[in-house]
Amino acid sequence: MAGSQKIPSAVPPAIDPILAARLEAIKQLAGGFSERVAVVDRNFNVVYANESAWSEETSPSFDHSAKCYEAFAHREDPCGACPATNLFESSEVRSVACSSGGDGTDCGMHQAFPLAASSGEVKSVLVRFKGPLHPASGAGNDASVARKDVGLGELIGSSKPMRELLDMIRLVADSSATVLIQGESGTGKELVAKTIHRTSYRRDKPFVVVDCGSLPETLLESELFGHVKGSFTGAHASKRGLFEEADGGTIFLDEIADTTATFQSKLLRVLQEGEIKPVGGNQSIKIDARVISATNKDLVELVKAKAFRQDLYYRLAVLPLYLPALRDRREDIPLLAQHFVEVSCARHRQEVRHVPPDVMQALTQALWPGNVRELQHYLERAVVTTSGSELQCKDLVAAGSEQAGHDLRTVARGAAQQAERARILQALQQTGGNRAKAAKLLKISRASLYNKLRAYELGDV
What we know:
This protein folds into three domains: 4-134, Beta-Lactamase (2-Layer Sandwich); 139-324, Rossmann fold (3-Layer(aba) Sandwich); 327-455, Helicase, Ruva Protein, domain 3 (Orthogonal Bundle). Helix content is 41%, strand content 13%. The protein has 18 helices and 15 strands. Helix 12 (333-347) crosses helix 14 (371-385), helix 15 (394-404) packs across helix 16 and helix 17 packs across helix 18 (446-455).
Protein backbone atom coordinates (compact mmCIF):
# COMPACT_ATOMS: atom_id res chain seq x y z
CA MET A 1 0.00 0.00 0.00
CA ALA A 2 1.28 3.48 -0.83
CA GLY A 3 2.94 5.13 2.13
CA SER A 4 2.87 1.99 4.25
CA GLN A 5 6.37 2.70 5.51
CA LYS A 6 4.91 5.69 7.36
CA ILE A 7 2.19 3.78 9.14
CA PRO A 8 2.79 2.91 12.77
CA SER A 9 1.27 -0.20 14.23
CA ALA A 10 0.46 -1.01 17.81
CA VAL A 11 -1.29 -4.27 16.90
CA PRO A 12 0.16 -7.38 18.53
CA PRO A 13 0.88 -10.38 16.27
CA ALA A 14 -1.95 -12.46 17.76
CA ILE A 15 -4.70 -10.00 16.84
CA ASP A 16 -8.34 -11.01 17.24
CA PRO A 17 -9.52 -12.47 13.86
CA ILE A 18 -12.63 -10.29 13.63
CA LEU A 19 -10.66 -7.17 14.49
CA ALA A 20 -8.01 -8.20 11.98
CA ALA A 21 -10.64 -8.57 9.25
CA ARG A 22 -12.03 -5.14 10.01
CA LEU A 23 -8.60 -3.56 10.03
CA GLU A 24 -7.68 -5.22 6.74
CA ALA A 25 -10.92 -3.99 5.15
CA ILE A 26 -10.19 -0.45 6.32
CA LYS A 27 -6.66 -0.64 4.93
CA GLN A 28 -7.93 -1.82 1.54
CA LEU A 29 -10.48 0.98 1.45
CA ALA A 30 -8.57 3.92 2.84
CA GLY A 31 -5.19 3.40 1.17
CA GLY A 32 -5.91 5.56 -1.85
CA PHE A 33 -8.42 7.95 -0.28
CA SER A 34 -7.84 11.70 -0.07
CA GLU A 35 -10.00 11.61 3.05
CA ARG A 36 -7.96 11.30 6.24
CA VAL A 37 -8.65 8.03 8.08
CA ALA A 38 -7.04 6.41 11.13
CA VAL A 39 -7.61 3.57 13.60
CA VAL A 40 -6.74 4.22 17.26
CA ASP A 41 -6.79 1.87 20.26
CA ARG A 42 -8.00 2.67 23.79
CA ASN A 43 -4.49 3.80 24.79
CA PHE A 44 -4.46 6.41 21.98
CA ASN A 45 -1.95 4.37 19.94
CA VAL A 46 -2.28 4.84 16.18
CA VAL A 47 -2.95 1.32 14.92
CA TYR A 48 -3.30 2.46 11.32
CA ALA A 49 -3.43 5.72 9.39
CA ASN A 50 -3.72 6.15 5.63
CA GLU A 51 -1.30 8.26 3.59
CA SER A 52 -3.63 11.28 3.58
CA ALA A 53 -3.73 11.40 7.38
CA TRP A 54 -0.05 12.35 7.63
CA SER A 55 1.55 15.67 6.91
CA GLU A 56 5.00 15.59 5.33
CA GLU A 57 6.62 17.04 8.43
CA THR A 58 4.79 14.70 10.83
CA SER A 59 4.98 11.15 9.50
CA PRO A 60 8.74 10.51 9.47
CA SER A 61 9.14 11.46 13.12
CA PHE A 62 6.85 8.79 14.57
CA ASP A 63 7.60 5.16 15.25
CA HIS A 64 5.50 2.20 16.33
CA SER A 65 4.48 3.87 19.60
CA ALA A 66 2.89 6.97 18.02
CA LYS A 67 -0.01 8.50 19.92
CA CYS A 68 -2.93 10.07 18.09
CA TYR A 69 -2.63 13.36 19.97
CA GLU A 70 1.05 13.58 19.00
CA ALA A 71 0.52 12.64 15.37
CA PHE A 72 -2.64 14.60 14.60
CA ALA A 73 -3.10 17.31 17.25
CA HIS A 74 0.65 18.00 17.65
CA ARG A 75 0.38 17.81 21.43
CA GLU A 76 2.62 16.25 24.04
CA ASP A 77 -0.30 15.25 26.26
CA PRO A 78 -3.74 13.69 25.56
CA CYS A 79 -6.48 16.09 24.44
CA GLY A 80 -8.44 15.63 27.67
CA ALA A 81 -12.10 14.67 27.37
CA CYS A 82 -11.83 13.04 23.96
CA PRO A 83 -15.36 11.92 22.91
CA ALA A 84 -13.90 8.80 21.27
CA THR A 85 -13.29 7.33 24.74
CA ASN A 86 -17.09 6.99 25.10
CA LEU A 87 -17.02 4.28 22.43
CA PHE A 88 -14.86 2.09 24.68
CA GLU A 89 -17.11 2.59 27.70
CA SER A 90 -20.52 1.68 26.28
CA SER A 91 -21.60 -0.69 23.52
CA GLU A 92 -24.72 1.47 23.06
CA VAL A 93 -22.69 4.37 21.62
CA ARG A 94 -22.45 3.83 17.86
CA SER A 95 -20.59 6.97 16.81
CA VAL A 96 -19.26 10.22 18.24
CA ALA A 97 -18.16 13.55 16.80
CA CYS A 98 -15.68 16.12 18.06
CA SER A 99 -15.78 19.89 18.06
CA SER A 100 -12.69 22.00 18.64
CA GLY A 101 -11.34 21.84 22.17
CA GLY A 102 -11.09 24.84 24.46
CA ASP A 103 -7.50 25.49 23.44
CA GLY A 104 -8.27 25.12 19.75
CA THR A 105 -5.82 22.24 19.26
CA ASP A 106 -8.17 19.37 18.57
CA CYS A 107 -7.05 16.62 16.18
CA GLY A 108 -9.71 17.44 13.59
CA MET A 109 -11.79 14.31 14.22
CA HIS A 110 -15.06 14.52 12.31
CA GLN A 111 -16.53 11.23 13.51
CA ALA A 112 -15.43 8.01 15.19
CA PHE A 113 -16.95 4.51 15.03
CA PRO A 114 -16.34 1.50 17.33
CA LEU A 115 -14.46 -1.57 16.11
CA ALA A 116 -15.40 -4.59 18.22
CA ALA A 117 -13.53 -7.87 18.61
CA SER A 118 -15.03 -11.38 18.70
CA SER A 119 -15.88 -10.93 22.37
CA GLY A 120 -18.00 -7.89 21.56
CA GLU A 121 -15.62 -5.58 23.42
CA VAL A 122 -14.59 -2.43 21.58
CA LYS A 123 -10.83 -2.64 21.12
CA SER A 124 -10.22 0.28 18.76
CA VAL A 125 -12.03 3.04 16.89
CA LEU A 126 -12.15 4.16 13.27
CA VAL A 127 -11.61 7.92 12.99
CA ARG A 128 -12.62 10.10 10.05
CA PHE A 129 -11.08 13.55 10.08
CA LYS A 130 -12.85 16.74 9.04
CA GLY A 131 -11.33 17.07 5.59
CA PRO A 132 -8.39 16.23 3.35
CA LEU A 133 -5.04 17.49 4.55
CA HIS A 134 -4.47 18.83 1.03
CA PRO A 135 -7.96 19.57 -0.34
CA ALA A 136 -8.65 19.16 -4.01
CA SER A 137 -8.78 22.50 -5.74
CA GLY A 138 -11.52 24.35 -7.56
CA ALA A 139 -14.56 22.89 -9.20
CA GLY A 140 -13.80 19.23 -8.52
CA ASN A 141 -14.00 19.73 -4.78
CA ASP A 142 -17.17 21.83 -5.07
CA ALA A 143 -18.78 19.12 -7.19
CA SER A 144 -17.97 16.55 -4.52
CA VAL A 145 -19.61 18.68 -1.86
CA ALA A 146 -22.64 19.18 -4.06
CA ARG A 147 -23.03 15.43 -4.58
CA LYS A 148 -22.82 14.80 -0.84
CA ASP A 149 -25.48 17.45 -0.22
CA VAL A 150 -28.14 15.70 -2.29
CA GLY A 151 -27.31 12.03 -1.87
CA LEU A 152 -25.60 9.12 -3.57
CA GLY A 153 -27.18 7.19 -6.42
CA GLU A 154 -30.83 6.69 -5.52
CA LEU A 155 -30.22 7.49 -1.85
CA ILE A 156 -31.46 11.01 -1.15
CA GLY A 157 -30.68 13.15 1.87
CA SER A 158 -28.67 16.11 3.11
CA SER A 159 -29.31 15.76 6.85
CA LYS A 160 -26.41 15.07 9.17
CA PRO A 161 -27.36 11.38 9.75
CA MET A 162 -27.61 10.81 6.00
CA ARG A 163 -24.36 12.62 5.22
CA GLU A 164 -22.61 10.40 7.75
CA LEU A 165 -24.22 7.29 6.24
CA LEU A 166 -23.28 8.28 2.69
CA ASP A 167 -19.72 8.99 3.79
CA MET A 168 -19.52 5.50 5.28
CA ILE A 169 -20.96 3.94 2.10
CA ARG A 170 -18.27 5.65 0.04
CA LEU A 171 -15.70 4.38 2.52
CA VAL A 172 -16.81 0.72 2.53
CA ALA A 173 -17.99 0.30 -1.06
CA ASP A 174 -14.81 -1.10 -2.62
CA SER A 175 -14.03 -3.47 0.23
CA SER A 176 -14.84 -7.17 0.07
CA ALA A 177 -15.65 -7.22 3.80
CA THR A 178 -19.16 -8.13 4.91
CA VAL A 179 -21.62 -5.31 5.66
CA LEU A 180 -24.50 -5.50 8.13
CA ILE A 181 -27.25 -2.91 7.57
CA GLN A 182 -29.57 -2.31 10.52
CA GLY A 183 -32.61 -0.06 10.61
CA GLU A 184 -36.36 0.02 11.04
CA SER A 185 -38.72 -1.36 8.39
CA GLY A 186 -39.14 1.02 5.49
CA THR A 187 -35.87 2.90 5.93
CA GLY A 188 -34.38 1.59 2.67
CA LYS A 189 -31.94 -1.14 3.65
CA GLU A 190 -32.09 -2.86 0.24
CA LEU A 191 -31.50 0.47 -1.49
CA VAL A 192 -28.39 1.00 0.65
CA ALA A 193 -27.15 -2.46 -0.32
CA LYS A 194 -27.73 -1.68 -4.02
CA THR A 195 -25.92 1.63 -3.65
CA ILE A 196 -22.91 -0.09 -2.07
CA HIS A 197 -22.87 -2.59 -4.95
CA ARG A 198 -23.25 0.07 -7.65
CA THR A 199 -20.54 2.23 -6.08
CA SER A 200 -18.07 -0.66 -5.89
CA TYR A 201 -15.82 -2.30 -8.48
CA ARG A 202 -18.36 -5.16 -8.55
CA ARG A 203 -20.99 -2.92 -10.17
CA ASP A 204 -20.95 -4.80 -13.49
CA LYS A 205 -21.49 -8.16 -11.78
CA PRO A 206 -24.78 -9.57 -10.41
CA PHE A 207 -26.62 -8.15 -7.42
CA VAL A 208 -28.68 -10.99 -5.96
CA VAL A 209 -31.39 -10.43 -3.33
CA VAL A 210 -32.49 -13.17 -0.91
CA ASP A 211 -35.41 -12.67 1.49
CA CYS A 212 -34.33 -15.02 4.27
CA GLY A 213 -37.55 -14.48 6.23
CA SER A 214 -39.86 -15.73 3.50
CA LEU A 215 -38.26 -19.14 2.88
CA PRO A 216 -38.29 -22.25 5.11
CA GLU A 217 -34.89 -23.52 6.21
CA THR A 218 -34.63 -26.42 3.73
CA LEU A 219 -35.65 -24.31 0.76
CA LEU A 220 -33.41 -21.40 1.85
CA GLU A 221 -30.38 -23.71 1.97
CA SER A 222 -31.17 -25.10 -1.48
CA GLU A 223 -31.75 -21.62 -2.92
CA LEU A 224 -28.49 -20.24 -1.57
CA PHE A 225 -26.14 -23.18 -1.98
CA GLY A 226 -27.86 -25.08 -4.82
CA HIS A 227 -28.58 -28.82 -4.93
CA VAL A 228 -27.69 -31.89 -6.94
CA LYS A 229 -30.15 -34.04 -8.79
CA GLY A 230 -32.01 -36.49 -6.52
CA SER A 231 -30.83 -34.86 -3.28
CA PHE A 232 -34.45 -34.55 -2.08
CA THR A 233 -37.97 -35.20 -3.30
CA GLY A 234 -38.66 -32.98 -6.29
CA ALA A 235 -34.98 -32.36 -7.12
CA HIS A 236 -35.32 -33.64 -10.70
CA ALA A 237 -32.25 -31.74 -11.88
CA SER A 238 -29.19 -30.11 -10.38
CA LYS A 239 -29.51 -26.39 -9.65
CA ARG A 240 -26.97 -23.62 -9.13
CA GLY A 241 -27.35 -21.73 -5.88
CA LEU A 242 -27.71 -17.97 -5.55
CA PHE A 243 -24.18 -17.71 -4.13
CA GLU A 244 -22.94 -19.09 -7.46
CA GLU A 245 -25.25 -16.74 -9.36
CA ALA A 246 -23.73 -13.83 -7.44
CA ASP A 247 -20.13 -14.89 -8.10
CA GLY A 248 -18.00 -11.80 -8.65
CA GLY A 249 -20.84 -9.58 -7.46
CA THR A 250 -22.90 -9.06 -4.31
CA ILE A 251 -25.44 -11.21 -2.49
CA PHE A 252 -27.88 -9.37 -0.21
CA LEU A 253 -29.33 -11.44 2.65
CA ASP A 254 -32.39 -9.54 3.85
CA GLU A 255 -34.02 -10.29 7.23
CA ILE A 256 -31.01 -12.34 8.31
CA ALA A 257 -32.32 -12.39 11.90
CA ASP A 258 -35.18 -14.68 10.83
CA THR A 259 -32.90 -17.63 10.00
CA THR A 260 -32.57 -20.79 12.10
CA ALA A 261 -29.56 -21.84 14.17
CA THR A 262 -28.83 -24.69 11.75
CA PHE A 263 -28.77 -22.40 8.76
CA GLN A 264 -26.68 -19.83 10.65
CA SER A 265 -24.08 -22.53 11.29
CA LYS A 266 -23.86 -23.37 7.58
CA LEU A 267 -23.71 -19.71 6.57
CA LEU A 268 -20.88 -19.15 9.06
CA ARG A 269 -18.87 -21.87 7.35
CA VAL A 270 -19.44 -20.26 3.96
CA LEU A 271 -18.15 -16.93 5.26
CA GLN A 272 -15.15 -18.57 6.91
CA GLU A 273 -14.13 -20.84 4.04
CA GLY A 274 -15.28 -18.84 1.03
CA GLU A 275 -16.92 -21.91 -0.47
CA ILE A 276 -20.31 -23.60 -0.61
CA LYS A 277 -21.44 -27.21 -0.77
CA PRO A 278 -24.69 -27.88 -2.68
CA VAL A 279 -27.38 -29.83 -0.88
CA GLY A 280 -26.71 -33.54 -1.47
CA GLY A 281 -23.31 -32.83 -3.00
CA ASN A 282 -19.82 -33.89 -1.90
CA GLN A 283 -17.73 -31.30 -3.73
CA SER A 284 -17.22 -27.77 -2.40
CA ILE A 285 -17.37 -24.83 -4.80
CA LYS A 286 -15.26 -21.73 -4.33
CA ILE A 287 -17.24 -18.48 -4.56
CA ASP A 288 -16.32 -14.81 -4.68
CA ALA A 289 -19.45 -12.92 -3.67
CA ARG A 290 -19.54 -10.01 -1.30
CA VAL A 291 -22.10 -10.58 1.45
CA ILE A 292 -24.34 -7.75 2.61
CA SER A 293 -27.00 -8.59 5.18
CA ALA A 294 -29.80 -6.59 6.73
CA THR A 295 -32.28 -6.74 9.59
CA ASN A 296 -34.83 -4.54 11.33
CA LYS A 297 -34.11 -6.29 14.63
CA ASP A 298 -31.42 -5.62 17.21
CA LEU A 299 -28.96 -8.43 16.58
CA VAL A 300 -26.94 -7.56 19.68
CA GLU A 301 -30.01 -8.22 21.82
CA LEU A 302 -30.73 -11.45 19.92
CA VAL A 303 -27.13 -12.56 20.55
CA LYS A 304 -27.56 -11.85 24.27
CA ALA A 305 -30.79 -13.87 24.24
CA LYS A 306 -28.95 -16.70 22.41
CA ALA A 307 -31.38 -16.35 19.51
CA PHE A 308 -28.60 -15.53 17.05
CA ARG A 309 -25.06 -16.90 16.83
CA GLN A 310 -22.50 -14.49 18.21
CA ASP A 311 -19.71 -15.71 15.93
CA LEU A 312 -21.93 -15.24 12.87
CA TYR A 313 -22.91 -11.75 14.04
CA TYR A 314 -19.29 -10.63 14.11
CA ARG A 315 -18.65 -12.25 10.73
CA LEU A 316 -21.59 -10.39 9.21
CA ALA A 317 -20.90 -7.08 10.97
CA VAL A 318 -17.30 -6.47 9.95
CA LEU A 319 -18.61 -3.17 8.56
CA PRO A 320 -21.87 -2.24 10.36
CA LEU A 321 -24.15 0.50 9.01
CA TYR A 322 -27.16 2.01 10.78
CA LEU A 323 -30.02 3.62 8.83
CA PRO A 324 -31.76 6.52 10.57
CA ALA A 325 -35.53 6.47 10.87
CA LEU A 326 -37.36 9.18 8.90
CA ARG A 327 -38.31 10.95 12.14
CA ASP A 328 -34.58 11.43 12.80
CA ARG A 329 -33.97 13.10 9.42
CA ARG A 330 -37.05 15.26 8.90
CA GLU A 331 -35.06 17.89 7.00
CA ASP A 332 -34.75 15.31 4.19
CA ILE A 333 -38.52 15.00 3.75
CA PRO A 334 -38.86 17.94 1.27
CA LEU A 335 -36.14 16.40 -0.94
CA LEU A 336 -37.73 12.96 -0.72
CA ALA A 337 -41.24 14.31 -1.28
CA GLN A 338 -40.30 16.21 -4.43
CA HIS A 339 -38.46 13.17 -5.78
CA PHE A 340 -41.35 10.77 -5.09
CA VAL A 341 -43.88 13.17 -6.60
CA GLU A 342 -41.82 13.51 -9.79
CA VAL A 343 -41.35 9.74 -10.08
CA SER A 344 -45.05 9.01 -9.44
CA CYS A 345 -46.20 11.62 -11.95
CA ALA A 346 -43.92 10.12 -14.59
CA ARG A 347 -45.07 6.58 -13.81
CA HIS A 348 -48.75 7.50 -14.06
CA ARG A 349 -48.24 9.79 -17.09
CA GLN A 350 -49.28 12.97 -15.32
CA GLU A 351 -47.76 16.43 -15.33
CA VAL A 352 -45.38 17.07 -12.45
CA ARG A 353 -47.29 18.51 -9.49
CA HIS A 354 -46.19 21.42 -7.36
CA VAL A 355 -46.13 20.73 -3.61
CA PRO A 356 -47.54 23.84 -1.89
CA PRO A 357 -45.94 25.09 1.37
CA ASP A 358 -48.78 23.97 3.66
CA VAL A 359 -48.63 20.44 2.24
CA MET A 360 -44.84 20.30 2.54
CA GLN A 361 -45.06 21.48 6.14
CA ALA A 362 -47.65 18.80 6.91
CA LEU A 363 -45.50 16.13 5.27
CA THR A 364 -42.51 17.24 7.31
CA GLN A 365 -44.40 17.19 10.60
CA ALA A 366 -46.19 13.86 10.11
CA LEU A 367 -45.06 10.81 12.12
CA TRP A 368 -44.36 8.34 9.27
CA PRO A 369 -43.95 5.19 11.42
CA GLY A 370 -43.48 3.27 8.16
CA ASN A 371 -40.54 5.54 7.33
CA VAL A 372 -39.52 6.34 3.74
CA ARG A 373 -41.61 3.51 2.28
CA GLU A 374 -44.79 4.89 3.87
CA LEU A 375 -43.99 8.42 2.64
CA GLN A 376 -43.43 7.09 -0.88
CA HIS A 377 -46.69 5.13 -0.96
CA TYR A 378 -48.65 8.02 0.54
CA LEU A 379 -47.40 10.44 -2.11
CA GLU A 380 -48.10 8.02 -4.93
CA ARG A 381 -51.66 7.64 -3.67
CA ALA A 382 -51.96 11.43 -3.47
CA VAL A 383 -50.72 11.83 -7.06
CA VAL A 384 -53.23 9.29 -8.38
CA THR A 385 -56.25 10.49 -6.40
CA THR A 386 -55.93 14.27 -6.81
CA SER A 387 -55.98 16.55 -9.86
CA GLY A 388 -54.75 20.02 -10.65
CA SER A 389 -51.31 21.55 -10.71
CA GLU A 390 -50.83 21.36 -6.93
CA LEU A 391 -50.65 18.21 -4.84
CA GLN A 392 -53.45 17.93 -2.29
CA CYS A 393 -52.95 16.10 1.01
CA LYS A 394 -56.02 17.28 2.87
CA ASP A 395 -55.87 14.72 5.67
CA LEU A 396 -52.33 15.67 6.66
CA VAL A 397 -52.90 19.40 6.25
CA ALA A 398 -56.07 19.22 8.36
CA ALA A 399 -54.27 17.31 11.10
CA GLY A 400 -51.46 19.87 11.05
CA SER A 401 -53.91 22.77 11.22
CA GLU A 402 -55.70 21.25 14.17
CA GLN A 403 -52.48 20.81 16.10
CA ALA A 404 -51.43 24.37 15.27
CA GLY A 405 -54.54 25.75 16.98
CA HIS A 406 -54.63 27.17 20.50
CA ASP A 407 -57.48 24.94 21.70
CA LEU A 408 -55.81 22.37 23.99
CA ARG A 409 -58.60 19.84 23.44
CA THR A 410 -58.23 20.13 19.66
CA VAL A 411 -54.47 19.72 19.89
CA ALA A 412 -54.87 16.64 22.11
CA ARG A 413 -57.42 15.12 19.72
CA GLY A 414 -55.12 15.63 16.74
CA ALA A 415 -52.17 14.13 18.58
CA ALA A 416 -54.26 11.14 19.64
CA GLN A 417 -55.40 10.52 16.07
CA GLN A 418 -51.82 10.68 14.80
CA ALA A 419 -50.71 8.26 17.51
CA GLU A 420 -53.61 5.89 16.77
CA ARG A 421 -52.85 5.92 13.05
CA ALA A 422 -49.19 5.18 13.78
CA ARG A 423 -50.08 2.28 16.11
CA ILE A 424 -52.40 0.74 13.52
CA LEU A 425 -49.66 0.87 10.90
CA GLN A 426 -47.22 -0.68 13.34
CA ALA A 427 -49.64 -3.53 14.12
CA LEU A 428 -50.16 -4.22 10.42
CA GLN A 429 -46.41 -4.33 9.89
CA GLN A 430 -45.97 -6.70 12.84
CA THR A 431 -48.60 -9.08 11.49
CA GLY A 432 -47.49 -8.91 7.86
CA GLY A 433 -50.66 -7.09 6.81
CA ASN A 434 -53.02 -9.67 8.38
CA ARG A 435 -55.92 -7.49 9.56
CA ALA A 436 -57.51 -10.13 11.78
CA LYS A 437 -54.27 -10.60 13.70
CA ALA A 438 -53.71 -6.83 13.79
CA ALA A 439 -57.16 -6.29 15.33
CA LYS A 440 -56.39 -8.92 17.96
CA LEU A 441 -53.04 -7.28 18.69
CA LEU A 442 -54.75 -3.88 19.05
CA LYS A 443 -57.49 -5.46 21.23
CA ILE A 444 -60.32 -4.11 19.06
CA SER A 445 -62.87 -5.82 16.85
CA ARG A 446 -62.16 -6.44 13.20
CA ALA A 447 -65.05 -4.12 12.26
CA SER A 448 -63.54 -1.32 14.36
CA LEU A 449 -60.21 -1.81 12.64
CA TYR A 450 -61.83 -1.60 9.18
CA ASN A 451 -63.61 1.63 10.21
CA LYS A 452 -60.35 3.14 11.39
CA LEU A 453 -58.54 2.07 8.23
CA ARG A 454 -61.18 3.92 6.18
CA ALA A 455 -61.06 6.96 8.47
CA TYR A 456 -57.30 7.24 8.20
CA GLU A 457 -57.29 6.35 4.47
CA LEU A 458 -55.22 3.23 5.07
CA GLY A 459 -57.37 0.89 3.02
CA ASP A 460 -54.53 -0.14 0.70
CA VAL A 461 -51.92 -0.69 3.40
